[in-house]
Here is the input.
Amino acid sequence: MARPYWSGNVQISLVAFGVSLYVATESKGQISFHQISRRTGERIRHQKVLESAAESKEATTAVENDEIVKGYEYSKGKYVIIEPSELENLRIPSKHTIAVSQFVDVADLHPEYIEKPYFVTPENDMSAEAFNVVREALVKTGKAAIGKVSFSGRENIIALVPAGADSPGMVAYTLRYQYELRNRADYFRDIKQPAIDPDSLELAETLIARMSAKLDIDKFEDGYETAVKSLVEAKVNNMPVPIDEAPQQRPSNVVSLMDALRKSVGSDTRSGKKPPKSVKEAASKGIGIVKTPAKSAKRKSA
Here is the structure.
């Protein structure tokens, strides 16, 4: 198993136990590009040089990595040098302990706040009992533990949640600070809110019920990477380069929302049974179709 990304304690009031956090994601893309000179076909290399040499366009040697330190610009062109050891020795309690400050409903962890997942395990066998008790309590209450942890050059808000009712582990999500999110009202305030037709709403609910299924993430693949592979293969083998097809033009005749919903529902014929008369009946049977829309259509055409 990989080495922990972070190890320390979880502190909940007077209860403390050790945990290890492991990065839950990895990049598995098989296509990567290098920067190449169009003129010579050679690969471009980047060097770190002094700013004064770059501005004067004079030939200079690259600055070695052991010469490079962090610097904070406290006024124009003036920097204070920060040594790596000084950053490592910053006094931040959350470097070693996730102090849980509150519990929230898991439903309150809105997707826009979630940044990156980590797998959480007990640090050792001695921590397993407290770890399991807290995990089970979170499962039964539907809560997430909120605290802060310091790594990656910042102090992160973190949420601890059970990895699932049938899983012995937990998952931690780093959360974005409020100031990192743009104001949603700036984007949503001008959305028009016309009256919702009840028949259209029922059709939409039926369509959702018909297309609902348990998420199987394995069936999704990166279409962009597949297309790039085809492009590379074609160029390597001197074959015609595949190009994007022109998008289909929108039909000139305007189709109403009601007609589009009816056709969408009608095109999904997964069940050979006679369609139920209502969405509620459809949901209870795991299938769905709307009531015969003839009366609705006649009423609208009158």
